[in-house]
Structures are given as structure tokens and as C-alpha cells.
Amino acid sequence: MLGTMLACAGSPSTFSPTLRNCQSVGGFVLIFLVVALIARDAQFPGWWAVLPTAGTALIINAGPQVWLNRTILSHPALVGIGLISYPLYLWHWPLLSFALVAEGGPPPLAVRIAAVTFSLILAFVTYKIIEKQYRRPSRNGAITPGGTFTPDGLILRSSFLRGRAVGVLCGLDSIQSAQQQGSKSGRGNHGRSR
Q: By CB atoms within 10 Å of each CB, which of 66, 78, 105, 123 scores lowest?
């Protein structure tokens, strides 16, 4: 919800540069407070999730020109982590969950480190081979046919096919084709009468 509000707001905060710098620092403080204060037995997500979410919103809304955002968040290492963050999010859960099941409980630290390291490698490969290909437009600016095989493309295609099947079963397909034939013949007759 906060992300939507930021997107609708459009541009970064219109506060003075000093206030925007304070806003960015405040956002970092909220995020680090959660990291420092959350206990193992805390209910998360819950109200604890408000702090990093609000902190992130403050940082984004401060804009790219404030000192922390310009120097820390624009560092190539952090930009690289940002680029692979979504594939990393997708890969780390199954690997850590598999380790938990395979060990019959919390896995040892070495196994967790190996799972996260393997997640980073898989995220990088996924970004390079799959995600980057879909971010790059084709030479003629058309949508690449691979988009059909993304989850959204598959949902759209299956919805279309399901709609066509329902139309055929309900006789709507024959009604539509009869209407199209009628409109074509009507245009043809109309064109001849001129």
C-alpha cells in the first residue's frame, strides 16, 4: 500500500534538501531498529513489519540526490544485489526449506551458508539468462515471444483459451461468426451501392 502511495505521488519529496536528508536517515534508522531489536520469538510479520516498510518508503521518497541514497544505495555492490533481489527472493526459500526438511530441524550454520551462497549463484544466473532477456526490448520494439511463457503470459493465454472453450460450448462462437459474416456482407453491399 505504501508503494502504491509513493507511485501515485510521482516525484520525490518536495521538502528542503536538509529535511530530505533527515527523512532518508530516519528511514535507515527505522530499518536498523527492527534488525537490532526484533527477538527470535517475535511475531513477524505483524506490527514489526510497519517499521522497515515505513523506513523504506521514507528512503525512496527522499529521492536519489540525498547523501545516503546517492553514496550508499548507489554503490555498485548494492545495485547488484538490487538487480538480483527478486530471483534471490525466489530461490532462497526453497533451498532453506529443503535444508530444514533434510536435516529434520534447523540446519547447521554451514548448511545455511551453503544454501544462501547457492541461492546467490542461482539468482545471478536467473537474472542473466532469464530476467535480463525480458527487460531488453527486441530490435523492432515488439514484445518477445518468450513473454508468453512468463507466469503472467501463461495466465493470460490460459484465460483466453478457457474463454474460447466456454464460447464454443455455449454456442457463442457460432453466434459471433454469424455476426461477423453479417457485418462483412453488410459492408460489401453498402460499398456496392455507392
A: 105
Handedness of CA 176, 180, 181, 185 (dihedral sign): positive
Cα–Cα separations (whole angstroms), residue 87 to 45, 79, 92, 175: 21, 14, 9, 46
In whole angstroms, give the CA distance from residue 108 to residue 102.
Answer: 11
Q: What is the pLDDT of residues 45-61, one digit of tens each?
A: 778 888 999 999 999 88
Residue 163 lies in a domain: no
pLDDT in tens, 148-171: 555 555 555 555 554 454 444 445
Domain-located, residue 18: yes
Nearby residues of 25 by Cβ (< 8 Å), 6 or more positions away: 68
What number of residues does the chain have? 194
CB of 2 closer than 8 Å to CB of 51: no
- Find how far residue 34's CA is from the centre of its chain: 23
DSSP state of 48: G
Q: Which amino acid is at 28?
A: F
- Report residue 193 as a C-alpha cell: 451501392
Grid cell of 71 as nine digits: 553514496
- Put simply, whether the predicted model's pTM sits higher than 0.70 gets the answer no
Number of domains in the chain: 1
Phi-psi bin for 171: left (phi > 0), alpha (psi -120 to 50), beta? left
Amino acid found at 107 = P
